[in-house]
Design a protein that fits this description.
It is a single chain. By secondary structure, this protein is an alpha+beta fold. It contains 19 helices and 29 strands.
Length: 757
């Protein structure tokens, strides 16, 4: 087929679609909305970790006739937030399972009166024994969920692991931990709900996944699908934190609006947003690896456990991705990965950029350093001898089809970081300096799209239509929250159709107007949805050609005219594309084996750190991020994604520690939850390689989550290089460095890292 006149949009730094509105203040966020007769809503939450509700009392000092009050008995449908297992109640009814669990909802026209009323409601509980750690949960002294406190388990088996230990020259074991992490988006969670006798319930909010919210409201309110409308407003950041939790907030606003028969707005302040909503899952990973004397991995066992909090939410799918990524970019002839998500009496953990992979990959990259030490090889050489290559199979027995050369990527990243010269310089100077320097790196991969059969299950649908003035509009439920969805999808459509980027727009995600293209998660937008947008755009073009209104080749002006003529003569011109799994992509959910992802991105990150001994504080001084991403659609946005992910990874490694007391976050303020500021960030050098991807729009893979995976292990490896002591948990805070150095002085003999045969 002849091609339209060439429009070079893909690969260009075109202006962001929503950029002007944001920088001029014209963008409308949910808290900007003012509706006639609108009330403000608030949540009364439990202070108890676990117990039974004995009584709820309302202070007589408040005139409660002025307030709308809602409890579980006001729920017309099923009292749950529909997601996967539907185990989380919208409002606690008789039983409390975590601190900050919502129990009572209040609404009033005056926000100040509302705040006083929240304090005047008392929830009286008879306490029950609570579980506050993965280890306690595993001991089952108290059963707080199901029959065994386990939300989900997975098992990957490749080869005969049990027979390999006798063949090993070295058996290397290690245990690694990662902590919780707060998403800390700029805009807090917010939602407005409106009730109409004719239209039903409409909610506007700051969210990632409109159809998740839609599904939850249908079940909670007992209404038909057509009586629920969900509209995404401009959203100021998400990072996974607005994937599932907005369903809870929308449910609360909708219940109050139904009872009040007036619009209700609910906007969390920073404290409530931090202590009550989801966070990254804490994890523990145990590795036992059989290694030959020349440093080849023969096989091993990995035990990966995450803390899911009080309810299942998304723990099973976070666990799934973490399980598959636990083997990293290395060839394991035999491997067994066991994983589980366990229940504790903390607010449920949920989605966060990387979705389980940062946890298991941190453990693996630290463990590779331990293997190198035991075998007597360098960090570089141990990886070279074990990298996956084209034609190898992953832990799930997926054939590597990419012509990836990780050794060459490693050489390139190390060269750009001046790795060998810097490492030698630091080793020479550290003995005489109070500021120790070190350099380390991590090699890793990240699967793009939903894991396993997820994309088949979603069966995403997108639309592309022509307007009466000849412009093109994209119809998707994929959302923009700062990462570039609107811009990238418009680039794809413009390039496909050969029309100017300025002639393509994207509809506001609204469940009454756009098809369900699935959630905006899992690094799937550019690859999966972009490919569907391209397909739908081609369908639009073919309709015009079959109608006789467009001939190849054509100019942009001819395409625009053809659209105008068609709409004027025949009305709507719209093309729909539905996801079909690519040929050769199949996942066996029963055996947990096969093509886990249609494509992987590959990366090498190098970190240079300094450790100031007088203060025991570590700082990243320089960072190199090299990644293979298929095709870069928008270089500036892609670079921004990588820089932002590295910044979050630095926080994960060195600064951000969630402190709990009896399951409740006690540092839920930005004065004591420390995240890196701009002054804490190093120069970040971003490098891309592009080898295409047959399953992505113009060869693209997903990159949103990738940069979260590599910084933490690279940074900790650099700290170990600087100080010569091991750190196997993150974040590494000054007190951790102090304790490690003090322990070394008291006990200079290092613990054995592996057994030799």
């Amino acid at each position: 087929m002849a091609q339209p006149s060439k429009i070079n949009v893909v690969g260009a730094n075109v202006p962001r679609k929503e950029g002007r509105a944001k920088v001029t203040g014209a963008a409308i966020y949910v808290d900007d909305m003012r509706l006639s007769g609108m009330l403000h809503g608030a949540t009364v939450r439990s202070k108890t970790s676990r117990g039974t509700i004995r009584e709820i009392t309302f202070s007589p000092e408040i005139d409660w006739s002025e307030f709308i009050v809602a409890t579980a008995k006001d729920i017309p449908g099923k009292n749950c937030i529909a997601l996967i297992l539907d185990d989380q109640p919208c409002l606690a009814d008789g039983v409390i399972n975590h601190p900050e669990e919502p129990v009572v909802l209040l609404a009033h026209a005056d926000k100040h009166a509302l705040a006083r009323a929240v304090e005047a409601v008392q929830i009286h509980c008879d306490p029950l024994p609570a579980i506050h750690s993965m280890e306690e949960s595993e001991q089952k002294s108290q059963i707080i969920w199901g029959t065994d406190n386990v939300f989900k388990t997975f098992l990957i088996e490749k080869g005969d692991v049990d027979s390999l230990w006798a063949k090993a020259d070295h058996i290397v074991e290690g245990e690694y931990f990662t902590g919780a992490q707060e998403q800390l988006y700029i805009e807090n969670n917010g939602m407005i709900a409106v009730v109409s006798p004719e239209a039903g319930i409409t909610v506007w909010g700051s969210l990632q996944c409109p159809f998740y919210v839609h599904k939850a409201l249908v079940k909670l309110l007992g209404l038909p699908e057509e009586k629920i409308r969900v509209v995404q407003m401009e959203t100021g950041g998400a990072f996974g934190g607005k994937e599932e939790y907005p369903s809870m907030l929308a449910a609360h606003a909708a219940l109050l609006a139904m009872k009040a028969r007036r619009p209700v707005k609910m906007i969390y302040d920073r404290l409530e947003d931090m202590v009550a909503t989801t966070k990254r899952h804490p994890s523990r990973t145990r590795l036992r690896t059989a290694v030959s004397k020349d440093g080849k991995i023969l096989g091993g066992e990995i035990d990966f456990t995450i803390d899911g909090g009080a309810y299942a939410t998304l723990s099973s799918v976070v666990l799934s991705r973490g399980t598959i990524h636990a083997a990293g970019p290395y060839l394991w002839p035999t491997i067994r990965v066991r994983s589980k998500a366990v229940a504790t009496n903390a607010p449920p953990y949920g989605a966060f950029r990387g979705f389980g992979a940062p946890q298991s990959l941190f453990a693996l990259e630290r463990h590779m350093e331990k293997i190198a030490t035991v075998v007597g090889l360098t960090s570089v050489e141990i990886r070279r001898r074990n990298f996956l290559h084209q034609g190898d199979t992953t832990a799930t027995e997926q054939l590597v089809k990419d012509p990836v050369d990780l050794s060459a990527m490693l050489d390139k990243a190390l060269s750009h970081a001046n790795y060998y010269a810097r490492k030698e310089k630091f080793a020479r100077e550290n003995s005489s300096s109070s500021a120790k320097r070190g350099i380390g790196f991590a090699t890793f991969l990240h699967g793009a799209g939903f894991t396993g059969s997820g994309e088949r299950y979603l069966a995403s649908v997108v639309g592309v239509e022509a307007t009466a003035d000849g412009e093109v509009r994209i119809l998707v439920s994929s959302t923009e929250f700062g990462q570039g969805t609107n811009t990238v999808l418009c680039q794809v459509a413009a390039e496909t159709l050969g029309v100017p980027y300025e002639r393509v727009s994207i509809a506001q995600p609204d469940t009454t107007n756009v098809p369900n293209s699935g959630p905006t998660v899992a690094s799937r937008t550019a690859m999966v949805i972009g490919n569907l947008v391209s397909s739908a755009a081609n369908g639009l073009k073919q309709t015009l050609q079959l109608d006789g209104g467009l001939n190849e080749p054509y100019s942009p002006e001819e395409f625009i005219a053809a659209c105008r003529n068609y709409v004027a003569a025949k009305g709507q011109l719209r093309s729909i594309a539905r996801y079909n799994a690519p040929e050769g992509i199949f996942w066996d959910d029963t055996k947990y084996r096969g093509e886990a992802y249609a494509a992987y991105t590959w990366a090498v990150y190098v970190a240079e750190v300094s450790v100031d001994l007088p203060t025991y504080s570590a700082k990243v001084e320089n960072f190199v991020a090299l990644q293979e991403v298929g095709r870069v659609i928008h270089p500036l946005l892609a670079r921004g994604q990588i820089i932002g992910g590295v910044a979050q990874g630095i926080g994960f490694a060195l600064y951000e520690k969630v402190l709990y007391r009896d399951g409740r976050m006690i540092n839920g303020q930005m004065t004591n939850y420390i995240m890196p500021a701009s002054c804490d960030l190093p120069p970040i050098h971003v490098l891309f390689e592009e080898m295409g991807n047959p399953h992505g729009a113009f060869g693209a893979k997903g990159i949103g989550e990738l940069p979260m995976d590599g910084p933490a292990p690279a940074i900790v490896n650099a700290i170990v290089d600087a100080l010569g002591v091991d750190f196997n948990s993150i974040p590494v805070l000054p007190e951790d460095i102090f304790e490690a150095l003090h322990s070394r002085e008291c006990d200079p003999e290092p613990e054995p890292t592996g057994a030799s045969r």
